[in-house]
Each structure stands twice: as C-alpha cells, then as structure tokens.
Amino acid sequence: MTSDNKIIIIGRTATAAFPAEDIKDIPVKIDTGADGSSIWASDLNIDTDGTLHFVLFGIGSPYYSGKRHNTKQYTAHLIRSSNGQAQIRYKVTLSIVLAGKKIRGSFSLADRSQNSYPVLVGCRLLNKKFLVDVSKHSKIKPPLIPDPSGILVKELKKNPRAFFEKYHIDNHRGDIDL
Length: 178
Hints:
The chain is mostly beta strands. It has 2 domains: 3-132, Beta Barrel (Cathepsin D, subunit A, domain 1), CATH 2.40.70; 147-178, no CATH class. 12% of the residues lie in helices and 40% in strands. The protein has helices at 123-126, 151-158, 160-168, and strands at residues 8-10, 13-18, 23-30, 37-46, 52-56, 68-71, 75-80, 86-98, 101-110, 119-121, 130-132. The strands form 2 sheets. The chain has a 6-stranded mixed β-barrel with strand order 2-3-10-4-9-8. Strands 1-11 form a two-stranded parallel ribbon. Helix 2 (151-158) packs across helix 3 (160-168). The longest helix has 9 residues, at 160-168.
C-alpha cells in the first residue's frame, strides 16, 4: 500500500475540519452503524432555478460562520434515523479533513441542533480509509447544554414516573424546547 492508501486508525469520536468553512476542531461522532454521514445545516432553501442554499451549523453553535453555500449539485433521499423516524434530506458533497486526511464525501443536511455532535461520519465515508478503535476518542468534547442548578436531576428524583411522562410519552427522544 502506498502512503496515500494507508488505513488510519481513529476512535469513536474525532475532530475534523471543513476547508470550505475554514473551521477546525469540530467534534464528530464516528458511527459504524450508520450507512451515511450527516452534518448540521440550517436555513435551507431551494429557489425557483433549483439552487439549494444552506448554512452549515446553526446560530448559537461555536462552529457557525453564517456563510451561505449555494449548489445545484445535490440529491434528495429518504433517511431513516436510529430512532425509527423517516425524513427527506438533501445530500451534498463536501470536503472534510479527518485524522489529517482530506477526503470528499456525501453528507445529508440535517438539523443536528439537539445532537451532542454536529457531524456524524458513517461507513461509506470510512470505508477503506479508516479503521475504528472504539477504545479511542477525541480529547475535544462537544459543548453540552448546561443544567447548572440541577433542575432535571431534582425533578427526576422527586417523581421518576411524572418525569418520564413529561419528557418521554409521545416524545421518545426526549426533545425539549429550551
């Protein structure tokens, strides 16, 4: 194998850069159970000439630059997420630098604002380029939503069933409005 074809060992989390955004050290989740990759995108729109407009990440994200991307090179796919929900998502090709290796890959544009990691890298992007060692992980952790007063913990301890009914009945992911 030549050095360009060398398989790199990465962990279950890593950091990446997207040259188009000029942003480095973005935490990514490596998911060998996911077929495709996805990235947090916001402000999606398709104008009358068929151009897809989007912004990577969202307002409030430390990785948000506000830079608008415009492309006619996209597709639409029905994606079934791990929670069983199906969504129609747009897919675009982006360049990513992962473990020092620059590669181009297909990413579905998704609202990952409620996910711990703004980018998920799946099997297709990893195939024949990376080997995943689950004992390894990135030292950079994604920003967490703070609960400084411990309100959720107190509410759970007070009445676990009421907590479950409030946050999980008809809301299996536990999504909440902040």
